[in-house]
Amino acid sequence: MLKIENVTKFYGNFKAVDNLSFKVKPGEIFGLLGVNGAGKTTTFRMIVGLLKPSSGKITLDGHFIDYNITDKIGFLTEEHSLLTKLTVKQQAIYYGTLKNMKEKDIITKLDELLKKFKIEEYKDKKIKELSKGNMQKIQFIMAIINTPKLLILDEPFSGLDPFNTEMFKNEIKLLAKNGSIIIFSSHRLEHVELFCKKLLVLKNGKNILSGSLEDIKHKYRKKNIEVIGDIDEEKIKQIKGVISVNLENNKYQIKIKDESVIDEVFNIVKKGKNISKFSVEQPSLNEIFIEKVGETYDE
Which end of the chain, N or C, is more open, meaning fewer C-beta atoms within 10 Å of its C-beta? Predict the structure, then answer.
């Protein structure tokens, strides 16, 4: 288990991370979110041992993070960290050796992953000769070549088309199924919703929202009602507690302050014509994020 306990990090007088605590169990994919400057990168660097906390502690299976523990960690950074003059094979040997792997095992694992991601022909190509998408594949392969106990993924789908994104998703799910602890960060909140049952949102280094995604959505009072059909839009807008009514792609999206408004909206909708759908939807993670953080979380 990964435990972050009351961790604070100062840069001089600036507090980048403020009394942060959370834990992630084996097999869990945990979402760590926040706009630029929120403290995510500092937190990642403390977890992998590149930075020391000013106070608090970080442990993996009860042990402090040191060079023995970092052999069990994989880290895909948002910025490319590949050595572009090396070939893919050379990069794998270099990285795998840093993780205390034997060269024979590195090559075996590399061949397996290159085949899985359908880029076997790039084994002896230099990194700088690859496209952005294939560089991202290689960076992901480097992060998982040691079959990490703890894997940190910061914007893993950057530069990928939908087909390759799906391959990444399947591999991440497989790693979790096999017991890896995964911390996942992405500006694409629909990906966070797909992967993460638990998450934490940082703002100015502080935890401002955390827990299971299901509980967070349940506690968030505002709801969305989706209606297909001909309705009296003006009457619905006049209901106290209706925030907005918008027609999008022949569907009405009705935002309401909480569940107490549902019956009143339904009583007007049922008097309309050709009603084929009346559905109360949970708010998206993006809506909750905007309300809590005060800004959008787009790339």
Answer: C
CA distance 13 to 8: 12
Q: Cβ atoms within 10 A of the Cβ of 141, count?
A: 23
> Does residue 229 contact residue 277 with C-beta atoms inside 8 Å?
yes
Which residues of 139-222 form beta strands (DSSP E)?
150-154, 181-185, 198-203, 206-212
pLDDT band at 295 (very low <50, low <70, confident <90, very high): low
Q: Is the pTM here over 0.85, yes or no? A: no
Q: What digits encode the pLDDT tens for the residues 5-56?
A: 999 999 999 999 999 999 999 999 999 998 888 999 999 999 998 999 999 9
The full set of domains in the chain, from first to last, is 2-217 (3.40.50.300), 221-282 (3.30.70.920)
pLDDT for residue 115 is more than 50: yes
Q: How far apart are CA 90 and CA 104, in angstroms?
A: 13
Q: Rounded to 10 degrees, what is the CA torsion of 220, 224, 225, 227?
A: -160
**Neighbouring residues of 119: CB distance < 8 A, sequence distance ≥ 6:** 134, 137, 138
The beta-strand segments (E) located in 144-288 are 150-154, 181-185, 198-203, 206-212, 223-230, 242-248, 251-256, 273-281
- In sequence order, what are the residues at sequence separation of 6 or more whose Cβ sits closer than 8 angstroms to the Cβ of residue 13? none
